[in-house]
Write a structure and sequence with these properties.
Strand content: 5-15%
Radius of gyration: 21 Å
Order of helices and strands: HEHHEHEHEHEHHHHHH
Strand order of the largest sheet: 1-2-3-4-5
Largest sheet: 5 strands, parallel
Structural class: alpha/beta
Helix content: 40-55%
Number of helices: 12
Number of strands: 5
């Protein structure tokens, strides 16, 4: 915390107690803390005491359906002086599948006086409304942003992210991202991981399944660029789901 305060100017420091990734759990961090409330409390208590920057916490509802500890953890979070709480409406065991438990998010909001942010599967106007209807103070969008970086602008304008942009605009975004990704990953390792973004952006377009197969079969930058350029130019006005 001292390093962050001395070298950066964030509006808050977030303690993530919801990450279900195995390598994070092995280090007894992330969602692992849902199994050890004493340790979670100590971390939060220490952070709020030493930090001059507001502390926020992100949680899930519990480890699994038999261990739903969100009420106890929410009380700890508020009592220890956390500025706001973000709730992903699933358990750790659910990972990113199954239904978001909106009723539990609403219950947490009703229990606390500090601001509560709702999170989980916000990908379009309908799912945004589901989260907003829980009464939360704000909404967090996570993985939906990775697959549609323009999702914030689309939802703010009351429009669906799917097909919000023209095919030509998506091509421009991919071209720019490709150059940035090459710098970030290096000449030897940029192409294969970049393909996942091409695949994500094609979701919802007709023939996207066949397109995915072709993307993964390409072995060079020029052929990949030609492939997605042709696809998105033709797919611009297609609205049927695949």
């Amino acid at each position: 915390i001292k390093f962050v305060q001395d070298n950066f100017t964030p509006f808050c420091i977030d303690i993530n107690m919801g990450c279900p990734v195995k390598k994070v759990l092995k280090s007894k961090a992330g969602a692992y803390l849902l199994t050890d409330l004493n340790r979670a409390k100590k971390i939060i208590e220490t952070a709020t005491k030493v930090s001059k920057i507001p502390i926020s916490v992100k949680v899930r509802l519990g480890w699994d359906e038999k261990n739903m500890i969100y009420k106890e953890l929410a009380n700890i979070i508020e009592n220890e002086g956390v500025s706001f709480l973000t709730v992903h409406g699933r358990t750790k065991s659910q990972l990113y599948s199954g239904h978001v438990q909106y009723d539990k998010i609403a219950e947490i909001k009703s229990l606390l006086k500090i601001p509560v942010i709702g999170n989980g599967d916000v990908v379009d106007l309908k799912t945004l409304e589901y989260i907003k209807n829980t009464g939360v103070d704000a909404v967090m969008i996570g993985r939906g942003m990775m697959k549609s970086p323009w999702i914030f602008e689309a939802l703010n304008n009351g429009r669906e992210p799917l097909h919000y942009l023209s095919g030509d605009k998506i091509i421009d975004i991919l071209n720019d991202f490709l150059m940035d990704w090459k710098i970030y990953k290096g000449e030897k390792h940029y192409l294969e991981p970049f393909k996942k973004f091409v695949i994500w952006f094609s979701k919802g377009y007709k023939n996207s399944s066949h397109f995915r197969t072709e993307v993964y079969a390409t072995d060079g930058e020029d052929s990949l660029v030609s492939l997605y350029t042709e696809f998105f130019k033709k797919a611009e006005l297609i609205s049927s789901h695949n």
